[in-house]
Design goal:
The complex is a heterotrimer of chains A (129), B (285) and C (554). Chain A has 129 residues and is α/β, with parallel strands linked by helices. Chain A has five helices and five strands, in the order E-H-E-H-E-H-E-H-E-H. Chain A has one domain: Cobalamin-binding domain (Rossmann fold, 3-Layer(aba) Sandwich). In chain A, helix 2 crosses helix 3. Chain B is an alpha/beta fold and 285 residues long. Chain B has two domains: 233 residues, Rossmann fold, CATH 3.40.50.300; 46 residues. In chain B, the strands form two sheets. A seven-stranded parallel sheet of chain B has the order 6-4-7-3-8-9-10, sandwiched between helices. Chain B has a two-stranded antiparallel ribbon with strand order 1-2. The chains are: A alpha/beta (129), B alpha/beta (285), C alpha/beta (554). Chains in contact: A-B, A-C, B-C. Chains A and C meet through helix 1 and helix 3 of A and helix 4 and helix 17 of C.
């Protein structure tokens, strides 16, 4: 069964190297990847997650706006009926924030230096459950 | 955010599509349980770079003003890794952001010989679930480009100047599949020549198909194209052409499913496989 | 037998006698050694066949400027130690500027938040969560006035990292000057104003490429007449490198951007001999020490040739590649952050040995967030130690003549030129960007690099080797969440108190002018002085120009 992943860039942050490199790695690992492009609103991210029925939603945020954006996306996903879909976040996220995000329902936070392999493994492990 | 748009439950549709894409038996059960409906499938194909996605994007939004509209965008799976970039949604910002339009991306999943049965099933499911117009955008290279004629009621062949399209269009079979020939990026140099060359080829073959010009970036010509699509669908319907096309589609779909089942369960039976493949290839003629 | 032939023979003998036997017992560390752009690195470099000193290496301050743009370089004056800094509010920034001025610094740099960079007001829904985060929020001339309160603009040089909305911010700067009684001709500073790299690497674009180029040439033209001492563009390679490009791509794409800007300015009727002097560049300094030094030298030579041969520039000053360097942010690790001090030191040294005009050194804790005052101090001291204690600033281009460096300089120039030719074939940089060619090249390099790290072909100390289990404990600079609310209130009040009819009229005038070909700066200046907001001005232009949609390369 193919794993379908949404890689999204919410907010105004324009740094997409990480998101694109991760998207390539996931494709090379045999997954079907939808990359949203820059400047997505939380609404459009959730809409894509819903219509495409992805197995995993990945957010890439490097501008520091992660707390506000993540809480909004989590809320909108619940309202849309897809609250159970795993949500991952990657970017510049301090460890205290990462703890808070995990408590709020984010499945995993990938900080700087995370290897592609660990992301792939984590996604495969999560989807299998 | 409500998932109920124009009476269609997008969440339920989305989940069902996943089942349909991955499990052929369940797919058949689900579809059988839905009433037959009259819906139209518009195929959009052409070379990469012609602007299929941005054109489909605009057409879908105009269509959604009057009719429930869905878009199925197909991208090739990597033959090496089995993975895929489903890169049409990002090119269809309008449709993807339009609450009335349902956009679904699908990978070709190794079906080199054309469109997979799961794509046929997905389209049929969408049609039976309430979508009146389903735009199917295909890969634009290889055999799925011609296979779209089996799936769609009407096919748009999108071309653009500067892509070597005049050579491409001579390629056997390509000119046979279009119902409307669209010269996109009509503001670029070479558009006039491409349009007249296309008209000339069509005249030579005695076909009276429209050649239209659009600029999917600026939006010019798109409304006219949409109107032409609806007019032709109406003509095909009243002439009975639509009905015979759909009968063929059903036959093709059944054969394709049979082919897949045989491949799965009776892999050693080459002769049977050969026969089905022969039938599949010739059903379009 | 010529001198060179004899050397080659000796080299062969040495290889056979000394190297080959040794390799049998002790193989080399790697199967092959390569540069960041996949060029093999040999065991040893010896004198080149032709003596190309005059033609290729030359003298500093003279064409082709390989050894430096000034004759005395750092013997005359050290590079400018310009540390980029950003603060969330105009008030905070203003306090810092006044402090710096009191300490004798005359160069200010302004970082703007993302909404300001992308043309959204603080109360726009797109701005939610982003106001004042990566820099100061400027919604209107009012904020700009607060930013420069009590700062005499004729006595400072202000560098503004702003691109898509550069025209608006520049207009505001001019307006603040006017209010202070300072004539525009006395203003000095820089605006980054490099839109092409936004499409390629940084992402704060607004309008499609053609309209953006029009705005840029409008700024060139306006400033050449009214702000002759203002640097109107900082053609940037830093971000291109950060996005994953290798060293050759960094200079190739940056210079290709430069070519596009020079051509656009010429098409707008400007004389390259004049505005060529106002161009400045901004490069990265990455980990490959020797490669980086060669890179800067290659860039200088290549640009000089481009200005002379492609654009027929005759004034030597207009052929000079003057540049600012920043050490590579993407090389900093969050793991074992103190290691970053060492990385930055080597990167800074490479920039100095490469002849940079000004330098920003990163702080060791920047992988995790904004730097603290202590870490910024260490970064500054790094530069000061290089300047005063190492002796490298005491002679010009000390590594000139090193066999490997000269070979590498030549190779990088050639390979960069190959890219530029390819881009020319595609129809120029604007077309190449539209087609996604540049973006794809960069992404492929980025992916290759990441795979190399995961395979341990590229070691990053503390990350994939010599790693340790550590707790990430550090003081973080936290953003005050009230900033967004304060800005929203401020802008609401502004909209009530200004002459809204006047604003509407001026925005309409701007739109009409945008549809034609008049220079837009005067129109923007008028709107800014009537307290039209940044977002309103940007939206007026959006209505006419439309918005850029990303080239899709995945």
């Amino acid at each position: 069964m193919k794993i379908k992943v949404l890689v999204a860039k919410p907010g105004l942050d324009g740094h997409d190297r990480g998101a694109k490199v991760v998207a390539m790695a996931l494709r090379d690992a045999g997954m079907e990847v939808i990359y949203t492009g820059l400047r997505q609103s939380p609404e459009s991210v959730v809409k894509a997650a819903l219509q495409e029925d992805v197995d995993v939603v990945g957010l890439s945020i490097l501008s520091g706006a992660h707390m506000k954006i993540c809480s909004k996306v989590l809320r909108l996903m619940k309202e849309a009926g897809i609250g159970e879909k795993p949500l991952f976040v990657g970017g510049i996220i301090p460890s205290e924030d990462a703890d808070e995000l995990r408590k709020a329902g984010i499945f995993e936070v990938f900080g700087p230096g995370t290897s592609l392999k660990s992301i792939i493994d984590k996604i495969e492990e999560t989807v299998k459950k | 955010m409500s998932s109920m748009k124009s009476g269609v439950d997008q969440l339920m549709i989305s989940r069902s599509l996943s089942i349909i894409e991955n499990d052929a038996d369940s797919a058949r059960k689900i579809i059988k349980g839905l009433p037959v409906r009259n819906y139209c499938v518009i195929g959009v194909t052409g070379s990469p770079g012609a602007g299929k996605s941005s054109l489909t994007d605009r057409l879908a939004c105009i269509s959604a003003e009057e009719k429930t509209t869905a878009v199925v965008a197909i991208d090739p799976s990597s033959p090496f890794t089995g993975g895929a970039f489903l890169g049409d949604r990002i090119r269809m910002r309008r449709a993807a952001g339009d609450p009335r339009v349902f956009v679904r991306s699908m990978a070709s999943r190794g079906n080199v010989g054309g469109l997979s049965p799961s794509i046929y099933n997905s389209v049929e499911f969408l049609g039976r679930s309430g979508y009146d117009r389903i735009y199917v955008e295909t890969v634009g290279a290889g055999q799925s480009e011609t296979d779209i004629v089996n799936l769609a009621d009407i096919v748009l062949l999108v071309m653009a100047p500067g892509l070597g399209d005049d050579v491409q269009t001579m390629k056997a079979g390509i000119m046979e599949i279009g119902d409307i020939f669209v010269i996109n990026k009509s503001d670029l140099p070479g558009a006039d020549q491409l349009a007249s060359r296309t008209r000339a080829i069509l005249e030579l073959s005695g076909k009276k198909f429209p050649v239209m010009r659009t600029d999917s970036i600026k939006g010019s010509g798109v409304k006219e194209l949409q109107e032409e699509i609806e007019e032709i669908l109406l003509t095909y319907f009243s002439s009975g052409r639509l009905a015979s096309k759909r009968a063929k589609r059903n036959l093709y779909n059944n054969l394709n499913s049979a082919y897949q089942i045989i491949k799965e369960h009776y892999a050693e039976n080459d002769k049977l496989e050969e026969l089905i493949r022969y039938l599949l290839e010739n059903i379009g003629r | 037998m010529s001198y060179h032939e004899r050397l080659e023979k000796l080299k062969e003998e040495w290889k056979n006698k000394k190297v080959v036997p040794l390799l049998k017992r002790f193989p080399e560390r790697k199967k092959e050694f390569k540069t960041s752009f996949d060029e093999p690195v040999e065991i040893l470099y010896t004198p080149a066949e032709k003596d190309e000193y005059e033609e290729k290496i030359g003298f500093p301050g003279q064409y082709p400027f390989t050894r430096g743009v000034q004759p005395t370089m750092y013997r005359g004056r050290l590079w400018t130690m310009r540390q980029y800094a950003g603060f969330g509010t105009a008030e905070e920034s203003n306090r810092r500027y006044r402090y710096l001025l009191s300490q004798g610094q005359t160069g200010l740099s302004v970082a703007f938040d993302l909404p300001t960079q992308i043309g959204y007001d603080s109360d726009d829904p797109m701005s939610e969560g982003e106001v004042g985060r990566v820099g100061v929020a400027i919604d209107s001339l009012e904020d700009m006035e607060t930013l420069f309160e009590g700062i005499p603009l004729e006595r400072v040089s202000t560098s503004m990292t702003i691109n898509s909305t550069a025209a608006i911010l520049l207009a505001m700067y001019i307006a603040v000057g006017e209010k202070q009684g300072v004539d525009a001709s006395k203003l000095t500073g820089t605006i980054q104003n490099d839109i092409l790299k936004e499409y390629i690497a940084r992402g704060t674009y607004i309008f499609p490429p053609d309209s953006s180029m029009r705005l840029i040439t409008d700024i060139f033209e306006y400033c050449s007449k009214n702000l002759p001492d203002f640097n109107t563009i900082s053609i940037s390679g830093y971000h291109i490198r950060e996005a994953g490009a290798n060293s050759v791509q960094e200079i190739a794409f940056t210079l290709a951007d430069g070519i596009a800007y020079v051509q656009a300015a010429i098409d707008a009727g400007l004389d390259p001999n004049v505005f060529g002097k106002r161009l400045s560049f901004f490069f990265n300094s990455h980990n490959g020490f020797l490669e980086e030094i060669a890179k800067f030298r290659a860039a200088r030579r290549l640009w000089a040739k481009i200005m002379k041969e492609r654009f027929d520039v005759t004034d030597e000053k207009a052929m000079m590649l003057r540049f600012h360097t920043q050490t590579g942010g993407s090389t900093l690790t969050a793991q074992q952050p103190m290691n970053n001090i060492v990385r930055v030191a080597f990167q800074a040294l490479a920039a100095v040995l490469g002849g940079t005009q000004s330098l920003h050194t990163n702080s060791f804790d920047e992988a995790l967030g904004l730097p603290t005052e202590d870490s910024v101090t260490i970064a500054l001291r790094t530069q000061q130690i290089i300047a005063s204690e190492t002796g490298v600033a005491d002679t010009v281009d000390p590594l000139g003549g090193a066999y490997f460096i000269e070979e590498l300089t030549n190779t990088m120039e050639e390979k960069a030129l190959d890219y530029i030719k390819k881009i020319d074939d595609l129809g120029g940089m604007v077309e190449a960007v539209r087609a996604g060619f540049v973006q794809k090249e960069i992404l492929d390099s980025a992916y290759k690099y990441q795979v190399a790290i995961e395979n341990k072909d590229q070691i990053i100390v503390g990350l994939n080797e010599f790693a340790a289990d550590e707790k990430q404990d550090r003081d973080l600079l936290r953003l005050d969440p009230a900033i967004e609310d304060r800005q929203k209130k401020k802008i609401g009040t502004l909209r009530k108190n200004r002459d809204n009819d006047e604003v509407r009229r001026l925005l309409d005038d701007l739109k009409k002018a945008a549809q034609g070909s008049e220079n837009l700066m005067p129109f923007i200046l008028k709107a800014v002085k009537a307290y039209a907001t940044l977002g309103e001005i940007a939206n007026a232009l959006r209505d006419v120009f439309g918005e850029y949609t990303e080239a899709v390369i995945l």
